[in-house]
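Our platform keeps sequence and structure together, in a single record for each protein. Nothing more is needed to write down the fold, since each code stands for a local backbone conformation. An entry from our holdings is shown next, in its original layout:
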Amino acid sequence: MYPKQEVVAMLLAGGQGSRLGVLTQKIAKPAVPYGGKYRIIDFPLSNCVNSGIEAVGVLTQYQPLVLNEYIGNGQPWDLDGMNVGVQVLSPYEKKGGADWYSGTANAIYQNINYIDRYNPEYVVILSGDHIYKMDYSKMVAYHKEHDADCTIAVIDVPLAEASRFGILNTNPDGSIYEFDEKPAHPKSTNASMGIYVFSWDKLRKYLIEDEANPDSSNDFGKDILPKMLADGQRMFAYAFSGYWKDVGTIESLWESNMDLLDPNVTLDLADENWKIYSRNPVVAPHYVSPTGVVQNSLISDGCIIEGNVDFSVLFSNVTIAPGAVVNDSILMPGVVVEEGAVIQYAIVSENAVIKKNAVVGARPEDIENKEDWGVAVVGDNRTIGEGAVVAPKEMVYEDKEGVN
């Protein structure tokens, strides 16, 4: 017997994250490391437990192994209760054969039975690839206060970026009268954050109808929300003003990590009142040798620093040899940087080795044609040979030979 829950959260975490290139070859986007000790999915999971939501379904699909192992029984997030907590929900074989999730709405449809067992009043739909802190209980309260059928979290974005998002147009009372999915000419800058609160009885009805429609793409933004709006359902926008970053590109992932080093950015990972929980490796404290210099950086446990590190984020067990230089970069767990190597404006993935005197990335002011500059990326378990050069914007999928 499952205990009734007023709110159930469904976390969509099956995205391939193709724009992250080599970083998501073997892992789903929500499992990508972030901020020195986290993975992206830690943020929505921590938001759930901090918001008092005890039943969380995580819908996985693409390359789920690392993500499934990381979530485990949910203990790091205090989501390991009896008959509640976090549950990984992968596509499974049903009568008539297996069926992959064909869209965000179809993913929820396929897990109606999971939601029904808690008999909730409300369902919160979340994305597993955003960096932010948010109290979902306040959004649910807003939804109830307005007697809404659907509430969409919105954030104000620059007009130049608005065409990347679903754009909401609202009345003075916050009710939504128009929704455009990624419009070429947006009429406002109220962007959907991909965070929804639905009254479950209403959403359940629309999911079943949508699944029966052969012309539907089974997507919330393209199908469910426009249909609810056309039917005159009560839909409201919930304004969010805190830090929020969709880390779906190399540039946005790099920028969001660098934001942690900016004292003017409002994302505070040291806030005792809203902790971001994670599954941490059990390793020794980090060590900075007499030859090591560290400035304005995040350094995780297990790191050995004998070179120079400035304005960078280092995950656990990173080794920086004497004479090596790391600036404005992200080094994921287990990276080794040998003597004389230089890493600038780069992301180096897990267990990569940068050999002696190799160069990865470059400072933008050192590039003559600014269009040629971008963040360099080295894939996991790759070796950059002695003296080799990884150019700005370059993504290294295979080992790179050194220059003799």
Remarks:
- The radius of gyration is 22 Å.
- The chain has a mean pLDDT of 92.
- Residues 200-211 form the longest helix (12 residues).
- DSSP finds eight helices and 33 strands in the chain.
